[in-house]
Design brief:
Layout (H helix, E strand, L loop, with lengths): L21 H7 L1 H15 L13 H18 L5 H6 L4 H5 L6 H20 L4 H18 L6
Helix pairs in contact: 2-3, 2-6, 6-7
Length: 149
């Protein structure tokens, strides 16, 4: 598997975003998927981008984790929990109020890059894991809205 983070350029034409292979969610399952997202955000708690999340408010931080898991589960072909509870994802609009730069994007992705190899050890098809990574890598480029200083 290749968890290289592609360079993103603010204002550049972004590549098309392909959804992960639905086999990823099927093999991982909802419980393990939620654990992956939870572990990801727990890692973020100890990074320089922790300030972007309500890490000091457990109830609010739990909501962030739930919303992120619901969104990613839906994107990966699972139940549409996100749409049921939050409506249309509109991720660009939802993230517009946050100052997201390339450096922060790399930290966010780096946390997933550390966690995803464990899934292969658990028997998840590496091609499915790669499709999930490719989605995160490309989709996260769209979220960058601030130049890195």
């Amino acid at each position: 598997m290749n968890f290289t983070i592609t360079d993103g350029t603010l204002g550049a034409t972004q590549p098309a975003v392909a959804k992960p292979h639905p086999g990823f969610f099927s093999q991982v399952g909802e419980e393990r998927f939620r654990k992956l997202v939870n572990d990801h955000y727990e890692m973020i708690r100890h990074t320089p981008i922790a300030f972007m999340f309500p890490v000091d408010y457990e109830e609010d931080f739990a909501k962030v984790k739930k919303h992120a898991a619901d969104f990613l589960i839906q994107i990966c072909g699972g139940p549409d929990y996100y749409a049921q509870t939050r409506g249309d994802p509109r991720m660009l609009a939802r993230h517009a109020r946050f100052r997201i730069d390339e450096k922060g994007r790399r930290i966010w992705l780096g946390c997933y890059a550390q966690l995803l190899p464990e899934l292969e050890k658990e028997g998840i098809d590496p091609d499915y894991i790669q499709s999930f990574w490719d989605y995160l890598n490309t989709f996260s480029m769209l979220m960058v809205n601030t130049p890195t200083v």
